[in-house]
Amino acid sequence: MLGLLGQRLLIIRKTDSARFDAIKQTDEMKKMRSGIPTGWADVTLFKANQYNTVEIGDFETIFQYLVNNDFDYLALGANEIEQVYQQSDLEKLDLTIAPTLMLRYNFPVVFYVNPNNPELAKHLNTGLELIIKNGTLKTMFDQHFGHLYSRLHLADRISFELKNPLIKSKIN
Known about the structure:
Blueprint: E1 7-13, H1 17-21, H2 26-31, E2 34-36, H3 42-48, E3 53-55, H4 62-67, E4 73-77, H5 81-87, E5 95-97, E6 101-104, H6 118-133, H7 136-151, E7 158-161
Parallel strand pairs: 2-3, 6-7
Antiparallel strand pairs: 1-4, 1-5, 1-6
């Protein structure tokens, strides 16, 4: 995903838009309450970065908790936020995607293979290294996700960097 999953955009209540537009500093962002469904890995990540975190509900109920003011925002990957917004019909709940902010952290997509099949892991690594080196991965990424950068104005957003304690430090 070339880091796209770790570019997290915020779903907020429309009535809070001006409040979020005014955020410019990390300490201001940390004061806002982040809602995260129970059991998501993001809970550990947000708490490790001293973000005000509310672990509550599941993905099916999380938007109603946001509407009820149990927290201030839900952060989702740039690659998924538009689809979630449309499929969950969040417009009807008076929710919106905050247009100026983004949280960023390393959140790699990983492949798991059976530990009894090290040859498969070796072949996957070799293939991935090849498509990275010859540019195929970037070409495929641009074809499938490149439009998100301009449509979601990812380069223009105020970005708050978080460390991911769940992955090796060399990736952070």
